[in-house]
Amino acid sequence: MSVLDRFSLKGKVALVTGSSTGLGQGMSIAFAEAGAKVLGVDYVDSPETKKVIEAAGGQFHSVVANLMTLEPLQGLVDETVKVFGKIDILVNNAGIIRRCDIIDFTEKDWDDVLDLNLKTVFFLSQAAARQFIKQGTGGKIINIASMLSFQGGIRVVSYTASKSGVAGITKAMANEWAKHNICTNAIAPGYMATNNTAQLRADADRSEAILGRIPAGRWGLPDDLMGPAIFLASDASNYLNGAVVPVDGGWLAR
Ligand code: NAD
Prior knowledge:
This protein is an alpha/beta fold. The protein has one domain: NAD(P)-binding Rossmann-like Domain (Rossmann fold), CATH 3.40.50.720. Helix content is 43%, strand content 15%. The protein contains 8 helices and 7 strands; from the N terminus they run βαβαβαβαβαβαααβ. A 7-stranded parallel beta sheet has the order 3-2-1-4-5-6-7, with helices on both faces. α1 crosses α8 and α4 packs parallel to α5. The chain binds nicotinamide-adenine-dinucleotide. Nicotinamide-adenine-dinucleotide (NAD) binds next to α1.
């Protein structure tokens, strides 16, 4: 087997949350191109993702579910196994952000963000890990963290809490599950041009300040996560556990 074959996802099955747009769409398309069958879940349908994947000869199964509660989580793992026979890769990508000065921050903006960005990430990972252990195959969990897994941010305190939590539970899960050949890692994207940052990019002052601090001199794109996501999902990263990998155009290096 050539070393490049270890990056292939041929024969693998991935469950990706937040597959309709942005980074989750990009990673779904990348996984399919690398050979995986993909079950994408989102609270809206993912027709564009399906179209791109199927046009290239790949397989994509779309499930519509609201991940704000734990109720659908076990069913998603069960459906992946039912449709594609097993699960090898979980990407916890679905996430939201609420912007408000800390002094005025509401309980709802705290709970909504923590429920989706942290609680669901934990319990969906648990459901997937139980299935990996039952299969005896090991598996890969990729959590989508943020620069705010490392930094405090401005006007997004519940998001910072959730993403700092994601970095913490990524390491905790890696510690307990590495012995089952489950690799749990996170990708921490920098400032990426998606819906998540539309408000920031529309604010000329904030946008200029952010751009001026990114050594690469540009906002990131879904395309920029494809290689790192395939690496973490593939056998090329089998000894990588508990890492939070920045893909940020150098932001953290400043
Ligand atoms: P996005 O808003 O385009 O994508 C978020 C996805 O999650 C969408 O497909 C959306 O439909 C889905 N989603 C939202 N609420 C949901 C719910 N209740 N149930 C199911 N699905 C739901 O933004 P994105 O930038 O692609 O974000 C993807 C992930 O990357 C998020 O976790 C985000 O926090 C993280 N991230 C983004 C950036 C950035 O700069 N864009 C930076 C760091 C981390």
